[in-house]
Write a structure and sequence with these properties.
alpha/beta, OB fold (Dihydrolipoamide Acetyltransferase, E2P), 7-stranded parallel beta sheet, 6-stranded parallel beta sheet, 21 strands, globular, binds adenosine-5'-diphosphate, binds magnesium ion
Length: 680
Amino acid sequence: MSSSTSASARSGAGLADLPVTALPGVGKAAGARLAQLGLSTVEDLLFHLPARYEDRTRCTPLAALVAGQRALGQGSVLAVEQRGGRRPHLTAWLADGPGQLLLRFFHPTSRHRRLLTVGTQVSVYGEVRWGAQGREMVHPDIAGPAEPSLLESSLTPVYPTTAGLSVKRLRQFVRGALEHVDALPDLLPPALCEEGLSLAQALRLLHAPALAVQPTAARKRLALEELLAHQAALAAARRASRRERAHPCRQANLVARFLAQLPFQPTASQQAAIAEIREDLMRDWPMRRLLQGDVGSGKTLVAAAAALIVLEEGYQVALMAPTELLARQHYKTFAAWFAGLGIPVLALLGTARSTQDARRRLAQGEVALAVGTQALVQDAVAFDRLALAIADEQHRFGVRQRQTLQGKGRIATHWLAMSATPIPRTLAQSLYADLDVSILAERPPGRLPVTTVALSQTRRTEVIDRVRQACAGGAKAYWVCPLIEEGESDLVSAQALHQELSRALPGLAVGLIHGRMSPAEKESVMAGFMDGVVQVLVATTVIEVGVDVPSANLLVIEHAECLGLAQLHQLRGRVGRGREQGHCVLLYRAPLGAVAHARLACLRETDDGFEVARQDLALRGAGELFGDRQSGLPHFRVADLAADAELLPRLRQAADDLPPEVAEALARRWLNARRGPAEV
Ligand code: ADP
Ligand code: MG
């Protein structure tokens, strides 16, 4: 340890500057391993939190060990058997009176051989399983009579780590780091510290819980700080965007003409959203708005109105959709809507040469509205005077894509994000504190809520009969099946299903659409379904987002027990988009687990996306609700939206009031993305 770093540690001048190698026992090699985990300073180590805990605080009698659980046991060695050869193997019987446990070691070390001799007392910790000869542990941790006991006085933290660095050593390093924990500045405003835990106390509890109890309050203390860091960053982004310059757009003649030519009246929600957007666009700083609305609430119309306000000023607009199917649908919709207004629309779908001409026309400003997929963010796509970028189903896009598209204007572009991920309003306002939020709270008038029933696979023939009858009466049906080919799992494949239904419904035209078809094929199948040439459409989840065929009114979802609530709700949104009553049949394979049962019950009870989201949040936690990294939502290290969402509203105000240097220190602590992927 150099004298300057130890001096800075003593004075507490910043653990963020104290390298891990300043800790006793951390040499160059260990330092390199830690760096792979994104841990280069003592502060980093302190914030490297356990993924879980092991309970080594009590010893379980061997007869009471339960298969599948990790436990600590103790006994004397009763018998030992060794096998040599290419795959040396050591087994030992441990007994504590009534109970016995078999220990297995493959490639045993000399320490194992020394410890495991008849009559020796050892303690072991590991996962119990049932083998041919009863309870056993494979490669447990083991301690002999002369070694430090495995029995601990507190829960044992298990850290995410990387190859070449054992959890045991990492634990030692963290213990070393904890010596410095009092030097960490506490960044949480005192008013927020309800539990009264200081940061140092919280970290001590998390790394070395005093009792065999999960340190919930300590986790909450850190979650609060992490969420505050995010809120502060969003508040800063919001302030920064106010200082940018965008093109103000003040006309609304085209919008008025457009709305007047529509065959229906915009809903009050749509009108309110359009008015909010209009006000945003009049300003000379960029709009940053999220338009939320349940499936079928009519977001596309609002996007069209926003586009027209900007187009009227002679600027360009880009509309990006996550799938080609949806982009093509939007292209058709906009082309039809805008034809009467004399506004040409351009589709930009692939990376191929075929788009060369489209790109040229955009760059030269010949076309004002481009509708496309991610192809829009390619380097080769340039705009002459882009002023508004719109992302449909924005949760499907990454931050990078959104920034790239926004960056294609000569000055800051206005930004409109649309999403059907139904998040409760207060949560949305906090999670997207850098955006303004408009909500479409109603569906167009005359829409009947989709009726939903859940039926066991055993009633499949009845469901097929129902489809036959409905289609004979002029209905159109989707039959959704989660996978496309036989053998990928035991799920019914779409292709097999297509054959089955074609056979079972001789008088009807049964179509098939799945993700491995070419875009042109998909489009022609969709067109067939739209026009009624195809009456039953067997589909994978490619139709999940955005697809709008108002005349389709029956939807069957295969293996509904395997899908998440949010996804089921999205799929169900494919029907009930027109005047006719929509129906949804959830086919499941019995027996249903408790959670699957609760999901299907929820869908049967409500057709309201926000209610579905609330129940989803309660059933499985926010992490899953918002899905994987595609969700575009922040990924928290400690905070868990399901448990901590209620903290957010308080934090918003607190974030606005933070002194800038505290906000910066929080960002440095929580938001730098140095940490790499780690294995547990
Ligand atoms: P989503 O919010 O799911 O994107 P869409 O924008 O696709 O919904 O709209 C769903 C359907 O409702 C479309 O066919 C659209 O033309 C129609 N629609 C939108 N607004 C209205 C309205 N105010 N009255 C009647 N139909 C509407
Ligand atoms: Mg949509």
